[in-house]
Amino acid sequence: MQQWGVSHWDIECETTQYSRFGLSDEQRNVLVWYVHPSTGEEKRLQTAEGSRPSDNLRAIYLTLDSIRLAEYRGLGDLMKQNYTLLAEKATRRAWHVVLGVNPEASLEECERAYREVAKVAHPDVPGGDEQWMRDVNAAIAEARAR
Protein backbone atom coordinates (compact mmCIF):
# COMPACT_ATOMS: atom_id res chain seq x y z
CA MET A 1 0.00 0.00 0.00
CA GLN A 2 2.93 2.33 0.57
CA GLN A 3 3.75 2.16 -3.14
CA TRP A 4 0.38 3.84 -3.77
CA GLY A 5 0.91 6.56 -1.16
CA VAL A 6 -1.48 4.98 1.35
CA SER A 7 -0.40 5.43 4.95
CA HIS A 8 -3.47 4.22 6.90
CA TRP A 9 -4.77 0.74 6.04
CA ASP A 10 -5.78 -2.59 7.59
CA ILE A 11 -6.83 -6.10 6.58
CA GLU A 12 -9.52 -8.11 8.35
CA CYS A 13 -9.75 -11.85 7.79
CA GLU A 14 -11.29 -14.53 10.04
CA THR A 15 -8.91 -17.35 9.11
CA THR A 16 -5.67 -18.02 7.30
CA GLN A 17 -6.63 -21.59 6.37
CA TYR A 18 -5.29 -22.68 3.01
CA SER A 19 -7.92 -25.36 2.42
CA ARG A 20 -9.52 -25.15 -1.03
CA PHE A 21 -12.84 -26.66 0.02
CA GLY A 22 -15.26 -26.36 2.87
CA LEU A 23 -14.64 -22.81 4.02
CA SER A 24 -17.76 -20.78 4.72
CA ASP A 25 -18.30 -17.32 3.25
CA GLU A 26 -17.24 -15.83 6.59
CA GLN A 27 -14.00 -17.82 6.61
CA ARG A 28 -13.18 -16.87 2.99
CA ASN A 29 -14.14 -13.22 3.46
CA VAL A 30 -11.40 -10.60 3.32
CA LEU A 31 -11.93 -6.90 4.02
CA VAL A 32 -9.29 -4.32 3.17
CA TRP A 33 -9.83 -0.71 4.16
CA TYR A 34 -7.61 2.27 3.56
CA VAL A 35 -7.65 6.04 3.54
CA HIS A 36 -7.33 7.41 0.00
CA PRO A 37 -4.14 9.52 -0.12
CA SER A 38 -5.51 12.42 -2.17
CA THR A 39 -9.16 12.64 -1.04
CA GLY A 40 -8.81 11.45 2.58
CA GLU A 41 -11.86 9.21 2.11
CA GLU A 42 -12.01 5.81 3.78
CA LYS A 43 -12.34 3.08 1.13
CA ARG A 44 -13.40 -0.52 1.77
CA LEU A 45 -12.99 -3.51 -0.52
CA GLN A 46 -14.45 -6.82 0.55
CA THR A 47 -14.86 -10.21 -1.12
CA ALA A 48 -15.49 -13.88 -0.39
CA GLU A 49 -15.69 -14.96 -4.04
CA GLY A 50 -12.47 -16.99 -4.07
CA SER A 51 -11.94 -20.43 -2.54
CA ARG A 52 -9.45 -19.22 0.07
CA PRO A 53 -8.74 -16.02 1.97
CA SER A 54 -5.37 -15.72 0.20
CA ASP A 55 -7.15 -15.84 -3.20
CA ASN A 56 -9.49 -13.05 -2.07
CA LEU A 57 -6.65 -10.91 -0.75
CA ARG A 58 -4.83 -11.31 -4.08
CA ALA A 59 -8.00 -10.35 -5.98
CA ILE A 60 -8.30 -7.16 -3.93
CA TYR A 61 -4.62 -6.36 -4.51
CA LEU A 62 -4.96 -6.86 -8.27
CA THR A 63 -8.11 -4.72 -8.34
CA LEU A 64 -6.42 -1.87 -6.47
CA ASP A 65 -3.31 -2.12 -8.62
CA SER A 66 -5.39 -1.97 -11.82
CA ILE A 67 -7.31 1.07 -10.60
CA ARG A 68 -4.11 2.81 -9.54
CA LEU A 69 -2.47 2.13 -12.91
CA ALA A 70 -5.52 3.37 -14.82
CA GLU A 71 -5.58 6.59 -12.80
CA TYR A 72 -1.83 7.02 -13.27
CA ARG A 73 -2.31 6.74 -17.03
CA GLY A 74 -5.23 9.17 -16.99
CA LEU A 75 -7.84 6.52 -17.76
CA GLY A 76 -9.83 6.65 -14.50
CA ASP A 77 -12.86 8.38 -16.03
CA LEU A 78 -12.86 6.01 -19.01
CA MET A 79 -12.86 3.03 -16.64
CA LYS A 80 -15.76 4.46 -14.64
CA GLN A 81 -17.79 5.03 -17.81
CA ASN A 82 -17.32 1.47 -19.07
CA TYR A 83 -17.18 -0.54 -15.86
CA THR A 84 -20.80 -1.66 -15.96
CA LEU A 85 -20.32 -3.08 -19.45
CA LEU A 86 -17.30 -5.08 -18.29
CA ALA A 87 -18.96 -6.32 -15.11
CA GLU A 88 -21.94 -7.80 -16.99
CA LYS A 89 -19.70 -10.09 -19.03
CA ALA A 90 -17.52 -11.33 -16.17
CA THR A 91 -20.12 -12.72 -13.76
CA ARG A 92 -19.65 -16.46 -14.38
CA ARG A 93 -16.51 -18.38 -13.40
CA ALA A 94 -15.00 -20.91 -15.83
CA TRP A 95 -15.96 -24.56 -15.27
CA HIS A 96 -12.39 -25.64 -14.48
CA VAL A 97 -12.05 -22.90 -11.85
CA VAL A 98 -15.26 -24.04 -10.11
CA LEU A 99 -14.03 -27.65 -10.08
CA GLY A 100 -10.45 -26.68 -9.20
CA VAL A 101 -8.87 -28.56 -12.11
CA ASN A 102 -6.64 -27.75 -15.05
CA PRO A 103 -8.55 -26.75 -18.23
CA GLU A 104 -6.93 -29.73 -19.96
CA ALA A 105 -8.01 -32.22 -17.24
CA SER A 106 -9.49 -35.53 -18.33
CA LEU A 107 -13.16 -36.26 -17.73
CA GLU A 108 -12.14 -38.75 -15.04
CA GLU A 109 -10.23 -36.01 -13.17
CA CYS A 110 -13.19 -33.67 -13.55
CA GLU A 111 -15.60 -36.27 -12.18
CA ARG A 112 -13.29 -36.89 -9.21
CA ALA A 113 -13.02 -33.16 -8.51
CA TYR A 114 -16.80 -32.82 -8.87
CA ARG A 115 -17.41 -35.45 -6.19
CA GLU A 116 -14.96 -33.73 -3.83
CA VAL A 117 -16.41 -30.26 -4.33
CA ALA A 118 -20.00 -31.53 -4.17
CA LYS A 119 -19.30 -33.02 -0.72
CA VAL A 120 -18.75 -29.53 0.69
CA ALA A 121 -20.93 -27.45 -1.65
CA HIS A 122 -24.15 -29.40 -1.12
CA PRO A 123 -26.78 -27.31 0.70
CA ASP A 124 -27.35 -30.10 3.27
CA VAL A 125 -23.72 -29.84 4.41
CA PRO A 126 -22.66 -27.09 6.85
CA GLY A 127 -21.01 -24.33 4.82
CA GLY A 128 -22.59 -25.44 1.54
CA ASP A 129 -25.31 -23.56 -0.31
CA GLU A 130 -27.67 -23.93 -3.26
CA GLN A 131 -25.95 -21.41 -5.55
CA TRP A 132 -22.55 -23.02 -5.02
CA MET A 133 -24.02 -26.45 -5.82
CA ARG A 134 -25.72 -25.04 -8.95
CA ASP A 135 -22.34 -23.67 -10.07
CA VAL A 136 -20.68 -27.04 -9.44
CA ASN A 137 -23.40 -28.91 -11.37
CA ALA A 138 -23.13 -26.47 -14.28
CA ALA A 139 -19.34 -26.87 -14.27
CA ILE A 140 -19.44 -30.68 -14.49
CA ALA A 141 -22.09 -30.48 -17.21
CA GLU A 142 -19.81 -28.20 -19.22
CA ALA A 143 -16.82 -30.51 -18.61
CA ARG A 144 -18.86 -33.51 -19.83
CA ALA A 145 -19.99 -31.62 -22.93
CA ARG A 146 -16.50 -30.74 -24.13
Give a written overview of the molecule.
This protein is mainly alpha-helical and 146 residues long. It folds into two domains: 2-89, no CATH class; 95-145, Helix Hairpins (Orthogonal Bundle), CATH 1.10.287.110. Helices cover 51% and strands 12% of the residues. The protein contains six helices and three strands; from the N terminus they run βαββααααα. It has helices at residues 25-28, 53-72, 76-89, 95-99, 107-121, 130-145; strands spanning 9-13, 30-35, 42-47. A three-stranded antiparallel β-sheet has the order 1-2-3. A hairpin with a 6-residue loop joins β2 (30-35) and β3. α5 runs antiparallel to α6 (130-145). It is globular.
In short:
By secondary structure, this protein is mainly α.
Task: Draw up the topology in text.
Blueprint: E1 9-13, H1 25-28, E2 30-35, E3 42-47, H2 53-72, H3 76-89, H4 95-99, H5 107-121, H6 130-145
Antiparallel strand pairs: 1-2, 2-3
Helix pairs in contact: 5-6
